[in-house]
Structure formats: structure tokens, C-alpha cells
Specification:
With 136 residues, the chain is mainly alpha-helical. It has one domain: Orthogonal Bundle (Non-ribosomal Peptide Synthetase Peptidyl Carrier Protein, Chain A). Helix content is 69%, strand content 5%. The chain is built from 4 helices and 2 strands, in the order ααββαα. A two-stranded antiparallel ribbon has the order 1-2. The longest helix is centred in the first third of the chain and has 35 residues. The model has no long low-confidence stretch (mean pLDDT 81). Keywords: Cell inner membrane, Cell membrane, Ion channel, Ion transport, Membrane, Transmembrane, Transmembrane helix, Transport. GO terms for molecular function: mechanosensitive monoatomic ion channel activity. Belongs to the MscL family. It is a multi-pass membrane protein.
């Protein structure tokens, strides 16, 4: 079996295609959550905290030095505000996934709880038993 045909067999399996679709949808969902956090959730939080924009919060270790154009020194900073935004995004995504899994589990439990119709032979034997009881 050639490597190309092995790859084709691998790539055309249902699980690989499902995974690819999941990754694409996950990427799009990530963009939605980023927008939700950056444009909807963080502005009110910043307003409540006195106008603080979390995405710009940073701890400057070494400020930028532009006095000498030949030797520009870039700012070195720990951007903990961006980390706070990312942490909030993670919590929203985790909660959304939790709700989806909870919904799927609830649906699967309902399907399990639904009584299955007895097989035809069991139903027939039950009917015969009931007829014999009524005869006596």
C-alpha cells in the first residue's frame, strides 16, 4: 500500500473530518468570545473600576528609549492586562463548553430513560400468558 493511499484512508476517516470541522468551528467561536470579552464585557468592568482598560495594564520593566535614533531600545513590560482578558475569555469558553456538554448529557439520559418496546417474542409470550390467566 503506497503512502499516498494510506494517507487518503487516514484523512477520509470520519473522526479526522469531524476533528477538522471542530477545529474550524472552535476557531470561529474563539473569535466570537474574544469580541464578546473585548467589546462587551471589559468596557463595563473598566467603567466600574474607574475607566481602567485591562488590555493596556502592564508592569514596565524597562521603558523604551528613543533619545538616540541609532540605538532605539524597545519597552520591556509584563502585560498582565492582556492576561486578564485571556483568562476571562477562557472562563467564558469553558462555561459555554460545560453548558453544551450538560445539554448533550441531558438529551442522552432522556433517550436512555425512554422505555424500549419489548421484542416481538416477549410481547407475544406476555399476551399468551394474559390470555391463559383470563381463561381460568
Amino acid at each position: 500500500m503506497s503512502m499516498l493511499s494510506e494517507f487518503k484512508t487516514f484523512a477520509m476517516r470520519g473522526n479526522v473530518i469531524d476533528l477538522a470541522v471542530g477545529v474550524v468551528i472552535g476557531g470561529a467561536f474563539g473569535k466570537i468570545v474574544t469580541s464578546l470579552v473585548d467589546q462587551i464585557i471589559m468596557p463595563p468592568i473598566g467603567w466600574l473600576t474607574g475607566g481602567v482598560d485591562f488590555s493596556n495594564l502592564k508592569w514596565v520593566l524597562r521603558p523604551a528609549d528613543a533619545t538616540d535614533p541609532a540605538h532605539k531600545v524597545a519597552e520591556v513590560a509584563i502585560q498582565y492586562g492582556a492576561f486578564i482578558n485571556t483568562l476571562i475569555q477562557f472562563l467564558i469558553i469553558a462555561f459555554a463548553i460545560f453548558l453544551v456538554i450538560k445539554g448533550i448529557n441531558k438529551l442522552s439520559r432522556k433517550q436512555e430513560e425512554a422505555p424500549a418496546a419489548p421484542p416481538a417474542d416477549v410481547a407475544l409470550l406476555t399476551e399468551i400468558r394474559d390470555l391463559l390467566k383470563n381463561r381460568q
